[in-house]
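Good morning,

Attaching, inline, the backbone tokens for the sequence recovery test we're adding to the shared suite. The designed sequence is right after.
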């Protein structure tokens, strides 16, 4: 059974890296059996037509957003103690799940995500008041240099919300917040000097590894021309002290969860069907 609590030295090192760089990859936090549970639930949930399913231009699945109750084993994943203990330490408070999705970046057809920051979407579209929010990406497949891994500019989170090119959308239209031509994109005049000053890192790792990243770190990912899928379960943890203010035509609950109740931690053996695999 996967170790549930990280040893204090590793936990401290991960917190330091996250604070300094705005991103840290924790290798193999989850085992193949746990990852397989999520992959199976993703497969089942993505077979059901829904506004939570976002497609690529090719018709392949780009993202599937999930709300509580959509996939029981993912609900259990979200509350795993080994994720919550790091997310709470990184944010300095109890947390709730602001957004949960699988970005699937399919073999040969998975499309790119242009350079952007995440927090600007949540501030401008959902009225989220502070950047006390982060995302944990659980690799469901090995992420290599070939399959469109995430790229980050380490340390860029310390510059706060950067100037973005904003493409206005009709009120209530959030499709460009989730597509290849994003509604808020970092432009070259911002990105080039930033990357020249701070460099770039990529989030590669074995399936089961977890990439934690700050809501203001500059990041992107190229398209996937490899014959291997690159599925990642993204869990966005938000401080319970950080609840969206009222905005007209706020986006749907699956993009901006309205229930800021703190997540109660669960142990690994809480997976509902693990014993039946
Ligand atoms: O708009 C959003 O909520 C989503 N869009 C992007 C580009 N990243 C954050 C989030 O998943
Ligand atoms: Fe993003």
């Amino acid at each position: 059974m996967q170790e549930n609590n990280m040893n204090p030295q590793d936990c401290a090192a991960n917190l330091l890296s996250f604070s300094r760089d705005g991103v840290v990859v924790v290798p193999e936090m989850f085992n193949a059996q746990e990852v397989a549970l999520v992959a199976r639930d993703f497969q089942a949930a993505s077979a059901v037509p829904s506004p939570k399913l976002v497609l690529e231009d090719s018709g392949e699945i780009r993202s599937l957003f999930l709300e509580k109750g959509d996939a029981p084993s993912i609900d259990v994943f979200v509350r795993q103690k080994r994720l919550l203990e790091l997310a709470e330490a990184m944010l300095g408070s109890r947390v709730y799940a602001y957004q949960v999705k699988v970005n699937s970046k399919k073999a040969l057809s998975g499309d790119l995500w242009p350079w952007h920051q995440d927090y600007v979407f949540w501030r401008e579209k959902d009225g989220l008041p502070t950047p006390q929010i982060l995302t944990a990406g659980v690799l469901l497949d090995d992420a290599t240099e070939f399959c469109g891994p995430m790229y980050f500019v380490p340390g860029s989170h310390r510059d706060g919300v950067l100037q973005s090119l904003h493409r206005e959308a009709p009120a209530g239209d959030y499709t460009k917040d989730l597509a290849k031509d994003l509604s808020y994109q970092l432009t070259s005049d911002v990105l080039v000097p930033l990357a020249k000053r701070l460099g770039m890192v990529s989030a590669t790792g074995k399936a089961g590894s977890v990439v934690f990243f700050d809501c203001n770190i500059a990041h992107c990912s190229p398209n996937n021309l490899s014959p291997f899928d690159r599925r990642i379960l993204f869990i966005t943890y938000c401080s319970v002290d950080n609840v969206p203010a009222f905005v007209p035509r706020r986006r749907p609950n699956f993009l901006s969860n309205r229930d800021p109740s703190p997540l109660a931690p669960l142990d690994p053996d809480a997976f509902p069907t693990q014993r039946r695999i």
